[in-house]
Amino acid sequence: MEQRILNVDAGYEAMDQYWKESGTKHLLLVCGASLQHTPLDACFAALPKRLGIAVTRFSGFQPNPEYASVVEGVRVFQNRGCDAIAAAGGGSAIDVAKCIRLWCRADRRKNLLEQTDAFDAIPFLAVPTTAGSGSEATRFAAIYHQGKKLSIAHEGCRPSAVCFVPEALNTLPAYHRKAAMLDALCHGIESCWSLRATQESRAYARQAIQKIMESYEGYIQNQADGVTQTDCNAAMLQAAHLAGKAIDIAQTTAGHAMSYQLTRRYGVAHGHAVALCVAWLWPHLLEHTQRCTDSRSRAHLDCGLQDIAQAMGCPSARQAAERFRCILESLQLGVPSVGEAAIDDLVASVAPERLNNYPILLSSAELAKLYRDILHLRQTNATKGGSGNAADCQL
Ligand SMILES: [Fe+2]
Predict the structure, then answer these.
(1) Which of 144, 250, 269, 379 has the lowest tally of Cβ within 10 angstroms?
(2) Burial class (CB in 10 A: 0-12, 13-18, 19+), 282
(3) Residue range(s) of every CATH 3.40.50.1970 domain in the chain
(4) Phi, psi (rounded to 5 degrees) for 137
């Protein structure tokens, strides 16, 4: 079913209309603690008075949410007799809400992962309060179980409606703002070179990248000449949503595959970790396009790389890669302090199936070299046995 985009206004009439039309009586609101700093908090708090809809809040999850949090969310949903879900937050809140919706009728005493057939298309509204993951546009949810990342892919995960509230981004911390913007930009880039890229996904990606290039400086500074903070936020929300639509079709590639353990082990924010990986993967890919595994020929890959360059306003793919690195450096996010001893574990942690969409095959030796470049470890240190195993993140 087509996802509805609700245009928010000062009184949230479009959102109220959605709840009324769907016959919602008891809403499970999946949200992080940061919701209280946004105008959305009052909007949801007044729902019982305004529309007679009961609201149960669920915030029992952490960034990079665990399977156990989803089970707890399903328990709350079922015990409180909820009949609809709203997610107001960043990628983690939306991912948890997606999973609760997928399993809201499941038997939580059994393994939820084996019960996707129990899906019930209850009303599900997503209100992203960060501009990056584009999670509100996709059928994917990421959760962690027993130390491993699980990617849940199901149409039931896709919110039935999305509402953009630019003012909800006003209080985002600077690091979060930068990392989320990089996540959206990398979704656009990776979806263009993905083996699953289609004309449709590349069209979404080009629009997303172009919009990010036009608006990221004002968005990062939280101000821009002649443009309001709300306009900057609105542009980035739209860009992240378009990039989300692109990865919903093309899916992510090696940049994301290599990033997950940098986030998991060293606390590097997701978008920051992905950007560190993409900054080194990109020139490496340009050096080895002749190894392209795309059955539609190398021309298809070249076309995708050219699409990125054009959307970034660069005359060549090489200059686009360089421009990306300059943007990343200008944000001054730093690199986690990780020793040579961690390299083998990092390489081993990259799930081979997650590299499948990448247009060239990466050997273990290449992954190790890329991680050393990403982490600024000199190759000579590797041959000497490394510089220790410090794993504290200096961001
Ligand atoms: Fe991402």
Answers:
(1) 379
(2) buried
(3) 4-169
(4) -95, -10
CA of 315 relative to ligand 1 center, distance in Å: 26
Helix (H, G, I), strand (E, B) or coil at 30: strand
Find the 54 Cα to ligand 1 centroid distance in Å: 33
CATH of domain 174-384: 1.20.1090.10
Task: Report whether CATH 3.40.50.300 matches the domain 4-169.
Answer: no
| Ordered DSSP codes for 307-333 | HHHHHTT-SSHHHHHHHHHHHHHHTT-
Q: Per residue in 278-288, pLDDT tens?
A: 999 999 999 99
Where does the pLDDT of residue 326 fall: very low under 50, low under 70, confident under 90, or very high at 90 and above? very high
d(CA 40, CA 127) in angstroms, rounded, equals 9
Q: Separation of 42 CA from ligand 1 center, angstroms?
A: 29
CA of 335 to the centre of ligand 1 (A): 18
Expressed in angstroms and rounded, the spacing between residue 220 Cα and the centre of ligand 1 is: 18
Residue 270 Cα to ligand 1 midpoint, Å, equals 7
Q: Is the pLDDT of residue 389 over 50?
A: no
Q: Which residues surround ligand 1, an ion (CB under 5 A)?
A: 183
